[in-house]
Amino acid sequence: MSPLRVVLADDHQIVRQGFRALLGAEPGVEVVAETGDGARAVELVARHRPDVLVVDLAMPSLDGIEVTRRARGRSPETSVVVLSMHNHEAYVAQALRAGAAGYVLKESGVEDLVAALPAVRGGGRFLSAGLADPAAGARPAVRDRYDTLSPREREVLHLVAEGRTAPEIAERLFLSPRTVETHRGNGLAKLGLRSQAELIRYVIERGLVPPAAGGQARGPAPGDRASPTG
Asked: What's 214's DSSP letter?
């Protein structure tokens, strides 16, 4: 069987390098590219068409949920495994609704991630031990307000939560500041939020950005790298 090709996305460079080294030592696994930025992760998936994208839930520019949605849209044959420190059912359900095939807790260790890769490559699903599969529950699904946001509203609100100003977001997304403000206002209204402070608390509580990032503008993600043969 051909090597299992992986794109790795985690905004903590040391963590990412550790995962890359460990996965690279696994027979039959090839990490073809890595990045610490959500939007870049989508680009790398579109370029490399890997078997699996491994993405952290909390990422700059685009969170792991939005990365999953977009990556699956650009490369439907790519399976996605979400890495997270959150073991609540709501987080698992959100990731699976976005198109993820696996959800691995960071506390579980690399063994879970190694086991998840072939499982999702074959069209299966993998959840770390102790996590319940939301699809197995009998309760009716309640629509998450976050799911009502358009992709652009999610992108704008994520950047707002990082501390970006409307002009900065406009330049980054090739929009007018007025359009950015429209997306910001619409998104906050859909979420039932009234201020940037409430938005920052919302995204941190959902694990979409790490606590240290809330309200702080972040520069370019360090360590984007692709393998020469990827």
From this structure: T
DSSP string, 39-101: HHHHHHHHHH--SEEEEESS-SSS-HHHHHHHHHHH-TT-EEEEEES---HHHHHHHHHHT-S
Tokens 């992108």 — which residue? 155
Specify whether the CB–CB gap between 53 and 26 falls below 8 A: no
To the nearest 10 degrees (0 to 180), the angle between helices 64-74 and 38-48 is 20
pTM: 0.69
pLDDT tens string 5-20: 999 999 888 888 888 9
Nearest to 155 by CA among 175, 140, 135, 141: 175
Q: List, as one string, the DSSP characters of 104-164.
A: EEGGG-HHHHHHHHHHHHTT--EE-TT---GGG--SPP---GGGGS-HHHHHHHHHHHTT-
Interval 169-211: pLDDT, tens: 999 889 999 999 999 999 899 888 888 888 888 887 776 665 5
